[in-house]
Amino acid sequence: TVEPLEYYRRFLKENCRPDGRELGEFRTTTVNIGSISTADGSALVKLGNTTVICGVKAEFATPPTDAPDKGYIVPNVDLPPLCSSRFRAGPPGEEAQVTSQFIADVIENSQVIQKEDLCISPGKLAWVLYCDLICLDYDGNILDACTFALLAALKDVQLPEVTINEETALAEVNLKKKSYLNIGTHPVATSFAVFDDTLLLVDPTAEEEHLATGTLTVVMDEKGRLCCLHKPGGSGLNGAKLQDCMSRAVTRHKEVKKLMEEVIKSMKPK
Amino acid sequence: MEVDEPSSRPPGCSLRHFACEQNLLSRPDGSSSFLQGDTSVLAGVYGPAEVKVSKEIFNKATLEVILRPKTGLPGVPEKSRERLIRSTCEAVVLGALHPRTSITVVLQVVSDAGSLLACCLNAACMALVDAGVPMRALFCGVTCALDSDGTLVLDPTTKQEKEARAVLTFALDSVEQKLLMSTTKGLYSDAELQQCLAAAQAAAQHVFRFFRESLQRRYSKS
What we know:
The complex is a heterodimer.
Chain A: H1 4-13, E1 29-33, E2 41-47, E3 50-61, E4 72-78, H2 94-110, E5 119-121, E6 125-137, H3 142-156, E7 158-164, E8 171-180, E9 188-195, E10 199-202, H4 206-211, E11 214-220, E12 226-230, H5 239-267
Parallel strand pairs in A: 4-6
Antiparallel strand pairs in A: 1-2, 2-3, 3-6, 5-6, 7-8, 9-10, 9-11, 11-12
Helix pairs in contact in A: 2-3
Chain B: E1 2-4, E2 18-22, E3 30-36, E4 39-49, E5 62-68, H1 76-92, E6 102-111, H2 116-131, E7 139-146, E8 152-154, H3 158-163, E9 166-173, E10 179-186, H4 190-221
Parallel strand pairs in B: 5-6
Antiparallel strand pairs in B: 1-2, 2-3, 3-4, 4-6, 7-8, 7-9, 9-10
């Protein structure tokens, strides 16, 4: 397109977008749980073309000295050159670091897992969950896809029972007895792109993100509480527009929760 | 040129004591030091200047923000804050007047006693004004903390931030107090968000008044 912005404006005047979606419509979301057998928990999420896969591995570690009854959750988002031509090989770029920090904040704020649940023996042994999120295809709205993939993968994680042998003081892992994690809340992210300072588009594609004058991401849990309101600059918004975003985030949360419950139910008889 | 804000505050707006000093560094095109209570940030702006061909944008200026913490090497949280400050500046700076140039904002944390991101935003704004970078509005940072029973505290100290249930930082513009940037920590409800936003908009009026007075005093003397 020679004039991408004008092209988009013509569609927005009719209240729709070039790919046929309404302004408040999400792309087709698909989720595949438990596909990686070598990981303790995994999930693959596709939001239209954006594909993110999350793998969770659990390892042992000594708890931190200032919190001896807590374990660790370490998220890492990788945006490899595979997913988009804008990323180069080498150390993580700014986008990957910002997304990693965002996921770490969501985990911390929403209390999706109580770190105390990850402790095996206070002061001596605790679980550390390494959550690796890799983007396979970058077509915008990476934050929503990563949050959903992380949540789905955490729901799939099964940790074996660990007992500390009194005599040898070694940990004994019972691989036959596994239990799921205790997921406290279900944070779901909804992203918006601001166009021309006035219009709000839900679930922007990469092209829409590039043309947008600002972005906004709302992370909500099932009780309607906000874990994160991430608006990195861009055009100004007033209170009324924020309200519209909140109501859209509430509906999105219901959609995502329903989808995840369906997938987990279809997987149960393993 | 140092300007102090009077320590008596109108009730209901409990911002800490502000102070701002401009043009204190000789090498950057613009510099400022912003103090909020005991939190202090030093900002320097270079620009519009040469930009690397790989980073140049054909129709506007390339903005870069570097945030250096008080101790240690900059890590992932600093990168995240740099992105927030950069996007806020990009929304107000008239980059189209200086295409294919770079405007670099360097922030150094001198002391951190709570509300650090808001102080960084204020320092960056004052430094951009001191450098003469054309902007369509000023912006300011305001932090609110919500504690467990829902009371709002503006401009919290480190202790208040730690004990709070949620800490919300907003960047507001000077024209209509619209929300430019927001980043939050902790859990809160939608109604509490609107309440914090309203309180932040009221506090922003005071901050902008302080900006205006300090600039008026500086330019009236020369």
